[in-house]
Structure formats: C-alpha cells, structure tokens
C-alpha cells in the first residue's frame, strides 16, 4: 500500500513544521551558560542574581524577535532623500592666523610631541 503524492507532501510539511517548532523552541531556550557567553563577549561582569535573572529576559527578547519575523515583508520606496548643501568657497585662515594659538611651532608648522 503506497501513499499518494498528496499524502506524502502533507507528511513532509508536517515534519517540516515540527522541525521549525523545535528550532524555534531551541532559539528561546537560554541558559546561564549562554548568559555567561554573551557577558564575556560584552566584557561585562555579572553578579549571581543577574546571571539567574537574565536567561528568562533573554528568552522573552528572542520570542519578541520571532514575533517580528512573522510580520510579512512588503516592498516600498524609501521616502528619505539626501539633503545636500551647495559647495561654497570661503576664505580660510592664513598660516600665521592658524599657528597663532599653537603651543609650539617649527618652521611654520604645528609641533607636537614625539611619538616613538
């Protein structure tokens, strides 16, 4: 007794849904090790109480992102336009005006500390 192509595709779709649900559940399963890893990446020291509280908070955030993933995408033109000002030539400072407040100068240039 063989399954019809429709029955096989329904079974495959059900199996895919089961896998997607399992992956979604895994995505929101956050444990203390995950919190420690993220804290290490961020170079943040956490106290024990914070380490215990963050897995639940991270899971809630990940669930929210999963909800956002369910929102359908749509194409639309960007309404933003670059606002550019016209280039205008202005008189600049003379060399002596630019160097007037410099702590040290040498041969008409700024002198800074030596970098080794």
Explain the overall architecture:
The protein is built from 4 helices and 2 strands. By secondary structure, the protein is mostly helical. The chain has a two-stranded antiparallel ribbon. Helix 2 crosses helix 3. It has a domain of 63 residues. It is 53% helix and 3% strand. Strand 1 and strand 2 form a beta hairpin.
Envelope shape: flat
Give the % helix: 40-55%
Poorly predicted regions are none
Q: Mean of residue pLDDT?
A: 82
**H and E string:** HHHHEE
Distance between the termini: 83 Å
CA radius of gyration is: 31 Å
Tally of individual helices: 4
Record the strand order, biggest sheet: 1-2
Strand content: under 5%
User: What is the makeup of the main sheet?
Assistant: 2 strands, antiparallel
Number of strands: 2
Class based on secondary structure composition and strand pairing: mainly alpha
Quick synopsis:
This protein has 116 residues and is mainly alpha-helical. It has a domain at 7-69. The protein is 53% helix and 3% strand.
Topology record:
Layout: H1 5-28, H2 32-42, H3 48-69, H4 95-99, E1 105-106, E2 109-110
Helix pairs in contact: 2-3
Keywords for this structure?
116 residues; mainly alpha; flat; 4 helices; two-stranded antiparallel sheet
